[in-house]
């Protein structure tokens, strides 16, 4: 596999990651969201492996493996078990309707492209153009968290955001040092446990996972 | 050596308490652990004082005057809070609000939280700083929702989501920082070390660092509680058990501000402009004003004091933004006295709310008559908090005001407005609470008076006279933060 | 305008006229096989058309000239479109006019007249069909244009022959923008040709008809022409997609030997495409009409993403 072809495949992976981020925005069914998230993790893992192959940095292969086991297998599995236990079917309506969300999403992609332009110009790396996609993924994850009402969907948006951050690390800097990556993975694992516990608490206390119900703590006049 | 010992103590006790946390003597073990941490912290501080800044553990940790004083403060307040927590949680257990598992979880997470904060303060690596900040957040999320009421869960959820999102932005900022650093320092763990970065900060690419600082500001600023990223703070600090509110308000905000200031030093070295300082000033002042005016509308006592935390952190951020000798000295002093005062206030507030069974300020009355220790310490705490002499807060605010008049005179009226409105708002609410007759629904209580008295004594001392070593420390820290 | 190119042109139109019903027959056959029904055979559409030509035309009393002339206009324009799209060779005399924007205009003319004819008689079904068709097209057209623009960005021209030349005969580069454009184009294809999940081509239930509603009043040779034009539209859209996104095999300029290979590959590609369309149709359910905004919005989104990824990633 020649270098430039590998770089092209990396670009395709970046495009697919962006596509899955938009897919997460428009998908209504929760199981569909979990699958999309798993696909996003898979594309991320392939991309990391390709960058590792291009640059010859072997710790990226380890990162890729970690991503695979974590974000493609473990986290979706945890989410799936939670959805089964909590007996969630589909989610309630979104706060902003879907076509409008998509338009905002496109605007965010253009915005992140502009924002990372100075960094992309300075970078000498093969993967420099994918930094804009990474930041766009982060922003789209954020958009997803803001426009959805269901607790599980918000968490998936949060995890998608973390995916984007990981992708940013590999595209801007060929991966953070191993110690940092391990620490971030550990944090994510703990966060996964915590939100799992959370879903149960919310579900038992509020009898639903609609986040809009949790709006009582406000200023009173 | 001492440093590793310092960190290991809290981690060890966290593991131990996970198993024995619901023992009769678990709170005593907690106090023991925190006390040992404090002693180790003081030893470390003495070492740094005598020998100057040092790196430990193959450049993994770095101790200088700035973070060692915060480390000592952290371990001290955690120790006094552990003393307070002993009496407080006993009453909570009697009232049936926490059971076996919750006590174990509470104690274990308490120590883990201390560990995370100390790790964040003492590490040399920006990536590890991020990791430990996130760990500190995660360890307290489930503590905020400990009581499992709807409002507690809502508060914990908001805390989790908002801080998680914020800190993710900080991670992006760290990635950009690493990108800029890699070009100068080469690939690998070396490029994220503060010691290396501070030396080459002028060579780092300004455009990238500017962008990185925006993300870092949003990220760590959320943890500091700067407006407009502060929405989680009043909820999270008012819903958990009071010892947790005390450490969150008193300590975690400081650690986040520490992280922000370290980033600011790098950005200043790189860009050479005052951009970072201006951003800090802007957000800080905004926080002061919004928080001060929000104080007027509060009904819940802990919520009111959380807004006061936002305001004080805003003052400290503003002062760090101004930069220069006087302001930085004032900011460091402010962080110190605010920690002590706010945690002392939370101690008394915790007991007051336990006595009345509610956190609603309209239902808390007659504190002086009912429980003189709580009542009087509350008044003293308030007086210290709003910045009246001779307490330490007055000294720090005075210094900050002086610096503002000197360097940013147009902003002085705003700062004064914020301080004044906060003063009035707090007094207005506190006065009916402490005076008057004892209401019928007040239950008697043996308060933990040692921590409060200790804190207030220290604050008073710092207002009247600053010990030599402390001022030396601050001066060194100011020099490091140029 | 050499004799060779005129020959290619005539060959193309003949293939269009003769093969389009076969393609529709193939799609229906595969669908029947997949749904476990017995099938009428690939040649059934031919028999339908021949039967219709033999029948008498029944016109409503208030039918205007629009109603009477629409079948001929539609048929003629469809054949014209077939003359422009290069699907066996790039050597067409109309190569200069083979611009995608012109193509979209021609499709719009067909749609315009069909919609008018639907409203002409004054029945409720016709009007409803016309309004639905216009809604769908107002959403689908921008998506299609955007998808094609993405390809033209990569090729630096909106001429179809140029696109075929560059992509088919140039070097093979993986372009993510084209991947997005393909997805968008597939969705628009389903919308424009009236396939599930946009419109069910086999239904006559009032709530679900779109295209069928507009042509409900036609009979005899008018209906034959319109049906034939409908089959040709399916063929043309498929071939358009294949020419833009999968043009390998189309004979290069001045290469008569490549024609045979081109024909063979075309048959193969169409066969596969037919199976893909049937898979999509069988796998999805027809959407509520009001969900179509989302569906076509997603198509537009994908096309825009393709364009953006061209700028960002390439």
Structure, described:
The complex is a heterotrimer of chains A (221), B (482) and C (314). The longest helix of chain A has 29 residues, at 178-206. In chain A, helix 1 (3-26) packs antiparallel against helix 2. Chain A is mostly helical. Chain A has helices spanning 3-26, 30-55, 59-86, 98-115, 117-122, 130-147, 151-173, 178-206. By secondary structure, chain B is mainly α. Chain B has helices at 2-20, 26-51, 65-95, 100-122, 126-144, 150-185, 194-199, 206-224, 232-239, 242-271, 275-294, 301-322, 325-356, 367-370, 372-385, 392-407, 412-434, 449-464, 468-480; strands spanning 54-56, 61-63. Chain B contains 19 helices and 2 strands. Chain B has a two-stranded antiparallel sheet. In chain B, helix 3 (65-95) runs parallel beside helix 13 (325-356) and helix 11 runs parallel beside helix 17. Chain C has 314 residues and is an all-alpha fold. The mean pLDDT of chain C is 85. Chains A and B meet through helix 5, helix 6, helix 7 and helix 8 of A and helix 5, helix 6, helix 8 and helix 9 of B.
Stretches of chain B where pLDDT is under 50 for at least 5 consecutive residues are none
N→C terminal distance of chain B: 29 Å
- Beta-sheet strand percentage of chain A? under 5%
Span of the ends, CA to CA of chain A: 67 Å
Helix content of chain A: over 70%
Main pleated-sheet profile of chain A: none
Kindly state the mean pLDDT of chain B as a whole number? 87
Order of strands across the widest beta sheet of chain B? 1-2
Q: Give the overall shape of chain A.
A: globular
**Main β-sheet of chain B, in a few words?**
2 strands, antiparallel
Rg of chain B: 21 Å
Count the DSSP helices of chain A: 8
Shape of chain B: globular
What class, by secondary structure content of chain B? Answer: mainly alpha
Keywords summarizing the entry:
heterotrimer; A: 221 residues; mainly alpha; 78% helix; 0% strand; C: 314 residues; 71% helix; globular
Write the layout of secondary structure elements.
The complex is a heterotrimer of chains A (221), B (482) and C (314).
Chain A: H1 3-26, H2 30-55, H3 59-86, H4 98-115, H5 117-122, H6 130-147, H7 151-173, H8 178-206
Helix pairs in contact in A: 1-2, 1-6, 2-3, 2-7, 3-8, 4-6, 6-7
Chain B: H1 2-20, H2 26-51, E1 54-56, E2 61-63, H3 65-95, H4 100-122, H5 126-144, H6 150-185, H7 194-199, H8 206-224, H9 232-239, H10 242-271, H11 275-294, H12 301-322, H13 325-356, H14 367-370, H15 372-385, H16 392-407, H17 412-434, H18 449-464, H19 468-480
Antiparallel strand pairs in B: 1-2
Chain C: H1 3-35, H2 44-54, H3 65-84, H4 100-120, H5 124-155, H6 160-169, H7 176-192, H8 211-214, H9 220-245, H10 257-283, H11 292-313
């Amino acid at each position: 596999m020649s270098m430039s072809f590998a770089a092209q495949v990396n670009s395709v992976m970046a495009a697919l990651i962006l596509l899955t981020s938009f897919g997460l925005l428009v998908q209504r069914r929760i199981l569909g969201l979990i699958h999309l998230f798993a696909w996003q993790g898979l594309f991320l893992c392939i991309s990391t492996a390709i960058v590792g192959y291009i640059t010859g940095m072997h710790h990226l292969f380890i990162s890729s493996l970690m991503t695979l086991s974590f974000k493609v297998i473990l986290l979706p599995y945890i989410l799936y078990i939670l959805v089964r236990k909590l007996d969630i079917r589909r989610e309630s309506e979104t706060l902003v309707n879907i076509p409008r969300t998509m338009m905002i999403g496109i605007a965010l992609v253009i915005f992140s492209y502009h924002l990372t332009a100075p960094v992309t110009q300075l970078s000498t790396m093969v993967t420099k153009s994918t930094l804009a996609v990474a930041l766009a993924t982060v922003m789209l994850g954020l958009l997803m968290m803001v426009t959805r009402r269901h607790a599980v969907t918000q968490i998936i948006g949060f995890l998608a955001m973390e995916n984007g951050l990981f992708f940013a690390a590999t595209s801007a800097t060929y991966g953070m040092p191993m110690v940092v990556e391990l620490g971030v993975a550990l944090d994510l694992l703990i966060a996964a446990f915590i939100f799992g516990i959370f879903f149960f608490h919310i579900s038992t206390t509020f009898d639903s996972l609609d986040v809009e119900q949790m709006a009582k703590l406000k200023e009173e006049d | 050596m001492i440093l590793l010992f310092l960190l290991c103590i809290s981690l060890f006790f966290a593991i131990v308490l996970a198993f024995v946390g619901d023992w009769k003597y678990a709170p005593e073990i907690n106090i023991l652990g925190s006390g040992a941490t404090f002693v180790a912290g003081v030893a470390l501080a003495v070492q740094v004082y005598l020998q100057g800044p040092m790196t430990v553990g193959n450049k993994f940790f770095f101790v200088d005057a700035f973070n060692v004083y915060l480390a000592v403060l952290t371990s001290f307040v955690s120790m006094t809070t552990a003393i307070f927590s002993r009496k407080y949680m006993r009453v909570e257990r009697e009232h049936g609000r926490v059971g076996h598992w919750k006590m174990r979880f509470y104690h274990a997470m308490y120590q883990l939280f201390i560990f995370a904060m100390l790790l964040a303060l003492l590490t040399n690596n920006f990536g590890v700083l991020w990791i430990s900040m996130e760990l500190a957040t995660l360890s307290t999320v489930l503590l905020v929702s400990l009581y499992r009421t709807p409002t507690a869960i809502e508060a914990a959820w908001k805390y989790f989501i908002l801080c998680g999102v914020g800190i993710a932005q900080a991670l992006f900022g760290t990635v950009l920082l690493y990108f800029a650093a890699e070009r100068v320092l080469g690939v690998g763990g070396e490029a994220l070390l503060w010691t290396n970065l501070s030396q080459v900060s002028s060579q780092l690419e300004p455009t990238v660092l500017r962008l990185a600082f925006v993300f870092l500001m949003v990220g760590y600023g959320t943890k500091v509680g700067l407006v407009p990223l502060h929405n989680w703070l009043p909820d999270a600090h008012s819903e958990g058990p009071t010892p947790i509110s005390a450490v969150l308000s008193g300590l975690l905000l400081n650690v986040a501000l520490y992280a922000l200031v370290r980033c600011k030093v790098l950005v200043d070295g790189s860009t050479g402009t005052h951009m970072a300082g201006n951003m800090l000033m802007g957000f800080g002042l905004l926080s002061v004003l919004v928080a001060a005016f929000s104080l007027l509308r509060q009904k819940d006592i802990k919520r009111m004091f959380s807004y006061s935390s936002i305001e004080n952190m805003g003052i400290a951020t503003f002062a760090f933004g101004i930069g220069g000798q006087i302001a930085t000295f004032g900011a460091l002093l402010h962080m110190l006295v605010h920690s002590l005062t706010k945690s002392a206030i939370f101690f008394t507030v915790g007991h007051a709310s336990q006595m009345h069974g509610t956190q609603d300020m309209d239902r808390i009355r007659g504190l002086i008559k009912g429980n003189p220790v709580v009542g009087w310490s509350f008044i003293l705490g308030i007086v210290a908090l709003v910045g009246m002499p001779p307490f330490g807060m007055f000294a720090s605010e005075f210094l900050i005001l002086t610096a503002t008049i000197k360097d940013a005179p147009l902003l002085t009226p705003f700062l004064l407005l914020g301080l004044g409105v906060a003063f009035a708002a707090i007094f207005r609410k506190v006065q009916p609470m402490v005076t008057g007759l004892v209401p019928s629904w007040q239950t008697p209580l043996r308060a933990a008076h040692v921590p409060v008295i200790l804190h207030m004594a220290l604050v008073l001392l710092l207002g009247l006279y600053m010990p030599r070593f402390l001022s030396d420390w601050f001066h060194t820290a100011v020099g490091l933060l140029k | 305008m050499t004799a060779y190119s005129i020959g290619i042109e005539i060959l193309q139109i003949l293939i269009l006229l003769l093969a389009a019903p076969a393609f529709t027959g193939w799609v229906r056959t595969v669908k029947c096989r997949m749904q476990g029904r017995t099938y009428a055979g690939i040649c059934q559409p031919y028999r339908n058309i021949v039967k219709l030509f033999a029948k008498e035309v029944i016109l409503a009393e208030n039918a205007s000239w629009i109603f009477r002339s629409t079948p001929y206009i539609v048929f003629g324009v469809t054949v014209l479109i077939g003359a422009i799209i290069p699907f066996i060779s790039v050597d067409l005399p109309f190569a200069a006019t083979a611009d995608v924007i012109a193509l979209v205009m021609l499709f719009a003319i067909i749609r315009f007249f069909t919609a008018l004819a639907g409203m002409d008689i004054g029945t409720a079904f016709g009007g409803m069909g016309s309004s639905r068709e216009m809604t769908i097209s107002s959403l689908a057209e921008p998506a299609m244009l955007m998808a094609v623009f993405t390809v033209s960005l990569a090729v630096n021209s909106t001429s179809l022959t140029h696109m075929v030349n560059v992509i088919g005969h140039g070097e093979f580069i993986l372009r993510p923008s084209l991947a997005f454009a393909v997805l968008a184009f597939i969705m628009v294809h389903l919308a424009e040709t009236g396939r599930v999940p946009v419109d069910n081509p086999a239904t006559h239930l009032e709530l679900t008809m779109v295209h069928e509603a507009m042509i409900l009043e036609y009979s005899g040779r008018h209906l034959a022409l319109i049906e034939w034009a409908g089959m040709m539209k399916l063929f043309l859209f498929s071939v358009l997609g294949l020419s833009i996104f999968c043009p390998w095999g189309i004979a290069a300029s001045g290469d008569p030997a490549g024609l045979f290979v081109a024909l063979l590959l075309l048959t193969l590609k169409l066969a596969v495409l037919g199976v893909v369309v049937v898979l999509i149709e069988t796998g999805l359910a027809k959407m509520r009409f009001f969900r179509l905004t989302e569906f076509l919005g997603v198509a537009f989104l994908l096309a825009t993403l393709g364009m953006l990824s061209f700028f960002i990633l390439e």
